[in-house]
Amino acid sequence: MKKIFLIVLALLVYGAFVVMMTPARFAFNLMTLPSQLKLGAISGTIWSGQIASIASDGLRLESVVWQVLPSHFISLDLAADINVGTTSSEIIAQGQVSVSSSAVITVEQLIATTTADYLTTITPLPMGLKASGKVKLNVSRFVYSQLWCDTLDGRLTVNNAQVASDFGSVPVEYVDISLGCKQHKLIATLKPANNSLGIDIEAQLSPTRQVTVLGAINPPHDAPQDFINLLKFSGQQDKLGRYPIVINTRLN
Question: SS in 3 state form for 188-224?
Fold first, then answer.
């Protein structure tokens, strides 16, 4: 019985080795990918490989490199360390991604950096606004089984930014947005203590693609005049001197 067990174990290990050493290009050719997803040259193996670029709906990732982590095999998860981008790429990221046997995707210790300039080329800001500055996404844990999330613990920070409009340019010293998930809704929260413009809002994105933003802006006494002019254009102050923010729309 012991000898049979060892033979079966050896066959399983050999089978796993053969699968993991399969060329990555061959494996991707067997997949049915969304039509809008465009992949560049694929090299390496399922175990350790690289995709030169991934593009979809204006977003482009360069030099996507993965290394499978064998420590997760015991739990029947497929996990890998992922690195994205080079020093000259618009987006640079690193983190760990795993997929369970029940198709639950988990992302941990993700750090991604880009610029507001680049992001606004993908999703333009309303009212013709333009933005610049450094953007950093830090996600401790993200779990996904259905839109948009099961669990999310992260932060989005913007530093040394400028927001330009027809009324002028507004400097934004810092913004620190808390990211979470509740009932599969993506939730972003920004408190006055975490930004230099007195913004207090909560934004939600529901599984039905409904976007709700509620809150107010109470500009500090030293707020740039261009920022005050923009607020006056967008609405009226309430009795507390705040500018209410109410947005209820649906993503296409």
Answer: EEECHHHECCCEEEEEEECCCCEEEEEEEECCCCCCC
Residue 133: how many CB atoms within 10 A of its CB?
20
Q: Which helix (H) or strand (E) holds 112?
A: strand 105-115
CB count in 10 Å sphere of residue 161? 20
Tell me the C-alpha distance between 252 and 249, whole Å: 10
Averaged pLDDT of the chain: 89
Residue-level pLDDT at 89: 97
Contact 186/213 with Cβ under 8 angstroms?
no
Residue of 238, 229, 112 whose CA lies nearest to 165: 229
- Number of Cα atoms under 13 Å in the Cβ half of residue 14: 6
Please tell me the pTM assigned to this model. 0.88
The answer to whether the beta carbons of residues 98 and 106 sit under 8 Å apart is yes
**Element (H or E) spanning 131, and its range?**
strand 130-144
Among candidates 189, 109, 179, 97, which has minimal Cα distance to 144? 97
Do 84 and 92 meet the contact criterion of CB atoms below 8 Å apart? yes
Nearest C-alpha neighbor of 39 from the set 57, 19, 56: 56
User: How is residue 231 written in tokens?
Assistant: 């607020």
